[in-house]
Amino acid sequence: MADDGAGPAVYDFILAHPPMPDGVRLLHLGLGGIALLDELEGERTLVVVDAVMLGDPPGTVHVIEWDDLPEAGQAVTGHGIGVREAIAVGRRLFPERMPRKVYLVGVEGRCFDGLGEPMTPEVAAAIEHAAATALDLAQGGIPSAR
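Request: output the structure for the sequence above.
Response:
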């Protein structure tokens, strides 16, 4: 759905540009939420990539650390639970499987209501940078400079 396709576009970009760095596992979890817990296997670092609306210009790539992750709000459903809430539940239920570091690589979007529409040019142009940033973080590095 337009700019909401940033996460899957980063996933596709990384798949199309091998090799995958050693120790990095790439998953596409379209719904996220509590389903994320089933996929965690004690990784040191979790990097989630998604489209965001934080008020910056479209195409801005944000790196948000665990303490600064936004809460999902009042909804408590499989999709309503955000990354922050899912990890908090996981840390209570399965602490040995939860990552020590959690990052959100957010690609600032503009259009989120265009079902079947392509990403806006600014967001499409940010995909490579978001992919490099996610891979750097996953390998324990710092975000790529733009």
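The two ends are 26 Å apart (CA to CA).
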